[in-house]
Amino acid sequence: MATEATSTDAPEAYETLLDRYERISYLGTASGVLSWDQQVMMPEDGTPARSKQLSTLASLRHELLTDDEIGSLLSELEDADLGDKQAASVREIRREHERADAVPRELVEEISETSSEALPAWEEAKENDDFETFEPYLEKHVDLKREYAEHIDPDRDPYEVLFEDYEPWLSFERAEEILAELRETLVPMIDAIRESDADLATDTFEGEWDADVQEELSREILSTIGYDWDRGRLDTSSHPFTSGNQFDCRVTTRFDESDPVGAMTSTIHEFGHAQYNLGLPQGEFGTPLGESRDLSVHESQSRLWENHVGRSRPFWELLTPIVKDHFPEFDGTPREAYEAANQVYEDNLIRVEADELTYHLHIVIRFEIERDLVRGDLEVADVPEVWNDKYEEYLGIRPETDSEGCLQDIHWSHGNFGYFPTYSLGSVMAAQLFSAADEEIDDLEGKIREGEFGPLHEWLSENVHAHGKQYRTNDLVVRATGEDFVADHFTEYVEEKYGELYGL
Amino acid sequence: MATEATSTDAPEAYETLLDRYERISYLGTASGVLSWDQQVMMPEDGTPARSKQLSTLASLRHELLTDDEIGSLLSELEDADLGDKQAASVREIRREHERADAVPRELVEEISETSSEALPAWEEAKENDDFETFEPYLEKHVDLKREYAEHIDPDRDPYEVLFEDYEPWLSFERAEEILAELRETLVPMIDAIRESDADLATDTFEGEWDADVQEELSREILSTIGYDWDRGRLDTSSHPFTSGNQFDCRVTTRFDESDPVGAMTSTIHEFGHAQYNLGLPQGEFGTPLGESRDLSVHESQSRLWENHVGRSRPFWELLTPIVKDHFPEFDGTPREAYEAANQVYEDNLIRVEADELTYHLHIVIRFEIERDLVRGDLEVADVPEVWNDKYEEYLGIRPETDSEGCLQDIHWSHGNFGYFPTYSLGSVMAAQLFSAADEEIDDLEGKIREGEFGPLHEWLSENVHAHGKQYRTNDLVVRATGEDFVADHFTEYVEEKYGELYGL
C-alpha cells in the first residue's frame, strides 16, 4: 500500500500505475529471496531448478514492466498535476519502463546467454592464466553492450549510457571528474607512503583466529552497532553480500582464520548496506519511494560504516576490549589495532584485498579500461598489456600473470561495464555524508567511542534512507550535506588520516 | 525442457501449451522456496513483505493458468492425436485450468481473507478453550466452500468436489470404503489391545535427550537410509515438513528432549516425502510428468518409510547401535526399542501425538464430521458434542475441553475440507505398496537389517516416483501392485504386527 504517495487526491491513472508497479516490485524482491537462498542455503545440485525459477520471474517482471498499459498510464500522467512524491514515483517508473522497452528482448536474452557461457570461460582462463580463453567472450560482451546502448540512445557515448544502468541520476561528467581527482590525489599520496619510514604495528593480528569464535564476534559487533535481529540474519557465503528490504534484510560474511580484520570490516560493510534497506519507509514497500537510490548511494552507506566508523580510532577503542572478550590471548592495544586495520599494502595486486587508499586506483584502472573498450578506443586483445602498464604507472607494481591482473574480477564475464566506478563514487560520497553528520552531531567521535550509535543512525535515516528514490542522486547529496557531490571531503579525510598514520 | 513428452511429433499446440505451463509450474516451485524460507529462515518481522511476494506470485500463477490462450490450446488439443504421456500432460493441465477457471476470483479472495481472519480466531479459541470464538469463522468457511464446490459442479455432492481438490483422480467411493474399513478393523483391535495384558518396554526411551545430539543422529539416519545431501538439507521448524523438487528437496524436523523417537520417526517420514520429489524425472521438471501425484500418494511414500521401514523390527536392529553411538548411556535392546516405538497409547486425545493405529480413528472422526458439515447434515454449533461423542465411541476416551477436542487442528481454520482423509489413505496405500515391494525384492527384511536400501529405492522409483502425474491414482497403484487400491494389506499388516506385539 502506497499510503504516503497516494494520500493527496492523485489522478486515477496514478493509482493504477502504482498498483501495476507494486507487482513488478514484489517480483523483484521475491527474486532477491531466491538468489539469497541460492548463495547461502541451496544444496549444490539445485541450480537447474533455481535457474528456471529465476528466469521465469525475470521474464514476467520484464513483461509487466513493458506492458502497453504502463506506457498508456505514463502518457496520461505526462502533464498531470502531481505532488512532489507522486512526480518522483512516476519519474522512476517511467525511466524503468522506457529502458526496458527500448531494448529488444532477443538482445537481453543474448546478453544473458553470453554471460552464462562467459562465466565458465572466465573461470577457466583465470585458473590457467590464459586470457585467450576469455577473450572472445569479452569481445562479444563489448559488442552486445554497445548494441544495447545504441538501442537506448544512439546519439550518446555508449559507456555513459551503460553507466546510467547503475547510476540513472548521477551525471557522468561529475563521476569522471571525481575519479580523475582520486587518481591525482592518491597516486602521489601512495608514493609518499611508500617512502615514509613510519613503522605501523602491522603484525597486531598475526596468528590463528578460530572461525566459530570470529562468528560470535561478528554477531556481537552487529549487535553493538545496532543491527535489528528481528529483521535480519548473519550467514556465511563465499562472497559477502546483503539482500532484502525494509522488513527483512540479511547480511553474509566469510571467515579467514589468518585475517580476523577482514571478517570484522566486511561484516560492518554489509551492515551499512542493510541499514539502508531497513531504513526505507515501510509504508512505501513496493513503490519507488520504498526502494533504495542507486549503487553509489548504497555503497556510500556501507563504506561510511566500514571506513568512517569501523576503521576509525574511536571505534577501535570501543572494539578492542570486545575482541579480547572473545579472544583472550589477543594483546593488541587500540592504537596498534587501528594501525594494523589501516595499513597501506605495498605490493597487493588484488582489488578485493586492497586497503582503503589503493582500492580506488584498482577502480580507476578498470574504469579507464572499460570506458575505452566500450568507446572503441581500446581493442580487447590489448587489455592485458594496458592493464599491466596502468598498474605500474599508478601503483608501482606490475602483475606477472593475467590471473593476478585483468582476469581477477568476475564483473566483465557478466558484461557489466559501468559498474566498477560506483564502488569509488560510494566511498567518496561516504566521506561527504560523514563529514556533514559530524558537523551536525555533537561529539560524534566520543559517541562512537562509547558505542552510542543512535544519533548517527537517525541522521542517516532522516537524510538518506527515508527518502527512497524521491530525489535524484546529486539532489539527495545536496539536501543531506548542503553542497554538490564532490571529492573534497574524501581528500581531506585521507590526507588527515594517512598523514597522521604515516607522518606525511 | 520437456524432452520426453515432446520427443514424438507432437502438435504445435501441445508444444505451446507445455511452454505456457512450464512458467506456471516454475512460479509454483518458486513460491515453495519462499514458503520454506518463511518457515525456516526468515527473521520474525519479515512477514508483511513475504505476504506481498507470495500473494503476487499466486495471483500471477492464477492469471497465467486461466489465460484464454490456455483455454484455446486445450480446445485445439481435444481431439488431437497424442502419445500416452502427452495425453496425460494435457489431462492434468486441463483439469488445473478448468478448476481455476470455474471459481470466480472474488470467491477465491474471500476464502483467502476468511482464512487470514479465521487463523487468529482459531488460535484464540484454542488458547481459551472457547469454541464460540471460532464458530462464526468455521460457519463462513463451510458456506464459502459449499459455494466454491457449486461453481465447480452444482450437480454433485459438494464434499466430494472438495475432496477432489486434493485427490483429483481417486474415486471418492473407494476412499469412503477404505475409511469405513479402517474403522471396522481398528475399533475392535484397539479395544483388544486395551484389554491385553502384554507388557511392552514402554519406558525404553525415558530420560533426557540432548537436542544437538539428536540432530546429529537424525543426520546419520538420513545418510543411512540414503538421503542425497547434494540435493537436500535438514533444518528445524515448528512443524516438520518437506519442500522442493527433483533438484533440491529439503526436510525439516523438530527435537523434543523427552521424546527422541518423535524426531527419528518424523525425520524418516519427511525423508519419504523428499525421496518422492527427488525421484521425479529431472527432464520433466516444469511439466505434469515431473510433478508428484496427489496427497495420498505423497503420504504413502512418507508412511512407507516411517512405518514399514522406520518402525519395523529389522530397522530397529540396524538403528539401535547407531543410537548408542550418539547416546552411549542408552541401554535399550532392539526389541525394547521396537516395542517402545510401536506402543499404542490408551488415552491420547491429540492426533499429531497418536500411534500408528489410533491415528486413523482420529482421521475417521474428522472425515465424518467435515463431510456431514459440508453436506449440510451437521450444524457447526453441534461440532464439539459430536466430536466428543465420536471419540468416546471409537477410542473410548472423551475430551474434557474443546482445545483438546475439535479445536486441536489448524486445517479447518484454512477452510481445508477433504484434506484429512488423505493422511489415512496414504497409510493404507503405503501398506499395499510395501507388500508388493516385499514380494518382488528378495529378502527385503534382511536388507533393511543390513542397511541395504538400494533395492527398495529402485522399486519405489520405478513404480511410483518416475511416473510423475502420468497415471491416475488407482492406475498407478494397479501398475505398481497388480491390484486396485484396497485396505486389505493395511489390515493384514496391523493384524500381524500388533497381534505379535500385544499377543492378540
From TrEMBL, chains A, B:
Record keywords: Carboxypeptidase, Hydrolase, Metal-binding, Metalloprotease, Protease, Zinc
CDD domains from the UniProt entry: M32_Taq
Pfam families: Peptidase_M32
Catalytic activity: Release of a C-terminal amino acid with broad specificity, except for -Pro
Signal peptide, first to last residue: none
Active site (UniProt): E270
GO-annotated molecular function: metal ion binding; metallocarboxypeptidase activity
Xref: InterPro entries: Peptidase_M32_Taq
Role, per record: Broad specificity carboxypetidase that releases amino acids sequentially from the C-terminus, including neutral, aromatic, polar and basic residues.
Assigned protein family: Belongs to the peptidase M32 family.
Protein name in the entry: Metal-dependent carboxypeptidase
Organism from which the protein derives: Halalkaliarchaeum desulfuricum
Upper taxonomic lineage: Archaea, Methanobacteriati, Methanobacteriota, Stenosarchaea group, Halobacteria
